[in-house]
Design brief:
Two copies of one chain form a homodimer.
Chain A lengths: L5 E6 L19 H12 L6 E6 L11 E4 L3 E3 L7 H10 L24
Parallel strand pairs in A: 1-2
Antiparallel strand pairs in A: 1-3, 3-4
Helix pairs in contact in A: 1-2
């Protein structure tokens, strides 16, 4: 892989007030994105992993949402205080953080236990 | 892969006037993103492929930039009129569009023929 060993996308989407689906951020600013970047830099991953902002990842009912490529590991309900664990365990250690993973049946679906 | 067969990120970054590195869009609105979505929907890929907006992908000298996961194929200097070829050849046919690919030596590097 010539570019990044891993490429992390942190949803920064913000919907208008009254929208039917939830938002990953209140105003487009993501403290989760900031903390992920900080932790990745502290772990020496700056040139190997990119922590990217993204538009809506369409898993809004599980917000805030993060996806890690190329392995396509999806995380939901991620808090800034989870960033160190994702960076240390997954991005550095190669072991996805199981407790934060979105269930297969919740991904890319029109209905799940969280989306009705 | 439980979520998307492919996940496409179209950089929509816009830098302030006078910035040292180029921008992928003038104002955050990407006609390339719009056209990619339109073409993917027309090809029947709506539930299998997601065409996402992203923040800066850090390959600014090759803007506008697109990356396709999970295969990590990077495209540069992509125009809206290239969208149909990327969708038809790559996203539908599985054959990356070689003429638009970023060279390995241009990716994730502090200097290349285009970045000094």
């Amino acid at each position: 892989m010539p570019a990044f060993e891993r490429h992390v996308f942190v949803c920064c989407n913000s919907r208008p007030a009254g929208a039917q689906r939830p938002s990953c951020t209140a105003d487009g600013n993501s403290s989760l994105h900031t903390e992920m970047k900080k932790q990745a830099a502290a772990a020496g991953l700056k040139d190997r992993v990119r922590i990217n902002k993204s538009g809506c990842l369409d898993q809004c009912e599980h917000s805030p949402v993060v996806v890690v490529y190329p392995e396509a590991v999806w995380y939901g309900h991620v808090k800034p205080e989870d960033a160190a664990e994702i960076v240390g365990e997954h991005l550095l250690g190669g072991r996805p953080v199981e407790r934060l993973r979105l269930a297969d049946e919740c991904l890319n679906t029109k209905s799940c236990a969280h989306r009705r």
